[in-house]
Amino acid sequence: MPKSLSKLLKIILPLGLGLFLIYYSFHSTTEEQRVLIWSYVQQAHPLPIFISILFGVLSHLSRAYRWRFLLAPLGYKPRFINLTCSVLIAYLSNLGVPRSGEILRVSVLSAYEKIPFPKGFGTVISERIIDLLMLLILIFTGFLLGGDWVESQLDSSTALLTTFVIVLGVVTFLIVSPFLINTQKFPFLARLKSFFKELYQGIISIRSLPNAFAFWTHTLFIWVMYILMFWVVKFALPGAEHLGFEAILLAFIAGGLSITMTNGGIGLYPLAVAAVFSHYELSYELALAYGWITWTIQTIMILLFGGLSFAILPIVNRKK
Asked: In this predicted model, what pLDDT tens digit does every residue of 206-243 receive, in sequence order?
């Protein structure tokens, strides 16, 4: 498959899936249900929504500040405004092209702070590994709380596991081969070897953090803000206030996983949230309204602050 076609499909397929799910969500409900869902959205109290946005902003600021701890052992002290704008631009990029944000985030910081891309990207990989660990802890907690219902919703996929093993094998080969083959005969492998060495330096920067306690405190704070951002919306919707921690956590996990499947969770996020909440004495219409409100809050916040970041960066770095 041509490389250009492959890139195009990576953009179109998740977006197409999201749009199809919006269509499905619309046509799988009756006109009466749609009217009821819209009425729930209109009745939502603005204060909890504003607080949800505040929690989201705090999580982004904390993520930007935490990145500074990983860059410090490498000898770099980027400005907080540049870190923040880079993080916000990454979220905005992921809305358009899934998983492109990490690359753009490092590219932006590299352009304004002169940090080598491989080293910066290595620190982002470290971040993602830690975030994955936090997500796994939440999923494990969800298993413990959700019990049999969670297990009944899971469908093991041999094909998915096979694909994962193949991709892991290819990535391992690309990393190991430059160190095993004589790179003098293959200049490309020499460049690849240099790239992976700098990448490795970025990844292991977590081992020599100047303030490990602050780093892990920020990590915990980020995820607490994520959950609170989702949780506080229940106070905006009359009839959803009774939702307990178990329901909130499972719906939060379902929504978070949906974001990895379509552009910013478009179409899928509300359905995933509704699928969980409808099992916790919440009407499907109210559950779907909850999903659409939380998704809209996150998306508008990213569009607004991500767009502003593009405008702010050239201004605050005018002298560079």
From this structure: 666 778 888 989 999 999 999 999 999 999 999 899 99
**Contact assessment for residue 80 and residue 65, using Cβ atoms and an 8 Å cutoff:** yes
Gap between the Cα atoms of 133 and 130, Å rounded: 5
Contact 236, 45 (CB under 8 A): yes
Tokens 């916790």, located at residue: 280
d(CA 9, CA 131): 27
Give whole-number Cα distances, 117 to 105, 114, 134, 196, in Å.
Answer: 10, 9, 26, 11
Residue 262 CA to residue 169 CA, distance in Å, equals 25
Alpha-carbon Rg for the chain, nearest whole angstrom, is: 21
Query: Where are the chain's structural domains?
Result: 45-316
Type of residue numbered 279: H
pLDDT per residue as tens digits for the range 82-101: 999 999 999 998 887 777 88
DSSP label of 182: -
DSSP 181: S
The DSSP element (H or E) to which 69 belongs, if any, is: helix 46-71
